[in-house]
Amino acid sequence: MEVEVLIRDGVVVASADGPVYSPGYVAVSEGKIVDVGPGSPKNMTAQQIVDARNCIIIPGLISAHDHMYGVLAHGIPVKVAVQDFWDFLDKFWWPYVEDKLDKRLVEAAVRYAAVERLKTGTTTVSDILEAPNSLPGVLDVEARAVAEAGLRAFLSFEATERCGLENGLQGLKENMEFIRRRNFRDGIVKGMHCIHTTFTCSPDFIQQCRHDADETGAGIQIHFEEGIYETRVCLGRYGKYPAQLYEALGFWKDDVIASQCVKPTVDELEILARRGVKVSHQPLSNGEVGAGIAPIPEMVERGILVCLGTDGFITDMFEVMRNTWLIHKAAKENASVLSANQVFKMATENGATALNIKAGKIAPGYKADITILRNRFPTPLTAENVVTQIVVYATGNWVDTVLVDGKLVVSKGQILTVDEDVVREECMKAATELWGESV
C-alpha cells in the first residue's frame, strides 16, 4: 500500500477519548486519514515521511468563533472611557476598528492571522468579518488569503442593521452569494450565514437570515448575550429574553452556533438544549471586555454541545484550552468542574461537529487536519495523562508540523505556504493606517 504522507514514531492521541498509541503512525492520502495504529505500519510505502520522534500527534485544533481582522487592533491606543461591553462596542470597536476597515486592510490582516493560527496548531477557523464599509465582495478577498496560507476556514460576514437596513441587506447578500459560489464545490474554504444580535437586528431581519440558511443548509453564526446589555435591551423592546425572542421567531435550529453566551437564564439554557443549538465559548475575550463568565458547566450538564474559539483576541488555542480548564473551576470553587478531556474535545471534535465536518479525530475517513507538537514536557507521558498534559501545560510554541487537508503547511515550526516576513510587514502597514491618530 502506498500513501501520500506517513507520519511515524510519535505519540498518537487519536481523540479526547483515545486511543493513544505510543509510538504510533498516521497514514494520509487524498486529504484524508487512511490508517492509524500502534508501532510501525507493515507493507506501506509513502511519497513523504514525517518523522515524529519525540513528538505528539493530535487532531488539528478548531477555533469555532474567530475574528481574524482583529489582529489590526492588537495594542491600539484607547483614550476613550470604556466601562462595560456596550462602551467597548459603541465608543471604541465600532467607530475605530470595524467602520474603518476596507478590503485592503482586511486582506493584510487575514494573511497574517492565518499564518499565526497555523503556526500555533489551529487547522480550522470559523471566522466572522465585521466591516460594514467593505461590502460587497470582501469575503472573496478573505477567502483568497486563507486559501493561500492553507487554513481551512468557514467565512461569514456579520450582517447587521446598525448602519441601516440597506447595509444590513448587503451583508445578508454577501453571505448568500459567497455560499452559493463556495459550498457546493471542493475546497477548504466554505461560507456560513451570520447576523449580529437582537439589539442590532430587527425580527424581520433575523427571520430573513433564517430563511436564507434554510435554503442553503450552510448554518448560522450569531453573537448571543455577550454581556447583560443585550438582555436588557431585548426585555425592554420585546418583553422577552433573547433566547425567547429567537424561539418565537422560529430561528433556533441545530445548525446555529451561538457564540459567547455569557448571560443566559436557566430558561434560555433549556431552550438552547431543546433546539440543539451549539455554543462557542470564548473565555479570554469575555474577560477582555469585562462581560463575565459563561455558564459552561451548566450547558454541558444539559447536553449542549460546546466548542471553543479565540474571538480574534488571544489566538493560541492552547491558551484558550488552558483557561477554559481553569476559569470554571475558580468560578465554581470546584476543582472537578470540566475535565481536561472535556476541554480537549471542545477544541477538536466538538468544533468539527458544530461546523458539520468530519474532522477533530485521527481516524480512518476523517479529514487529514493534524497538528504535531514537540514533546517538551519535563515529566513522563502516559496514555492516562497525555490529554491533561496537553491541555494544562502545552503551548502553541511547541507546534512543529501541521497538515491541513493532507498537505504540509507548517514544518519545523515554519510556515511553508507564504512568506511570513512579508505578510507581517503588510499587517504592520495596515495596522498603522487603521490606527491613524491615537484613539
Largest sheet entry? 9 strands, mixed
Q: How much of the residues is beta strand, in percent?
A: 15-25%
Counted up, domains total 2
The second-level CATH architecture of the largest domain is Alpha-Beta Barrel
Return residue spans where pLDDT drops below 50 for at least 5 consecutive residues.
none
The helicity comes to 25-40%
| Overall pLDDT level | 97
User: Rg from C-alpha positions?
Assistant: 21 Å
Distance between the termini: 61 Å
Total strands: the figure is 18
CATH topology of the largest domain: TIM Barrel
Determine and state the CATH class of the largest domain. Answer: Alpha Beta
Choose one word for the global shape. globular
The CATH superfamily of the largest domain is Metal-dependent hydrolases
Q: Give the number of helices.
A: 15
What does this entry look like structurally?
- The protein is an alpha/beta fold and 439 residues long.
- The chain has 2 domains: 2-59 and 366-415, Roll (Urease, subunit C, domain 1); 61-354, TIM Barrel, CATH 3.20.20.140.
- The chain is built from 15 helices and 18 strands.
- Strands 1, 2, 3, 4, 5, 15, 16, 17 and 18 form a 9-stranded mixed β-sheet that branches.
- A hairpin with a 2-residue loop joins strand 2 and strand 3.
- Helix 2 packs parallel to helix 3.
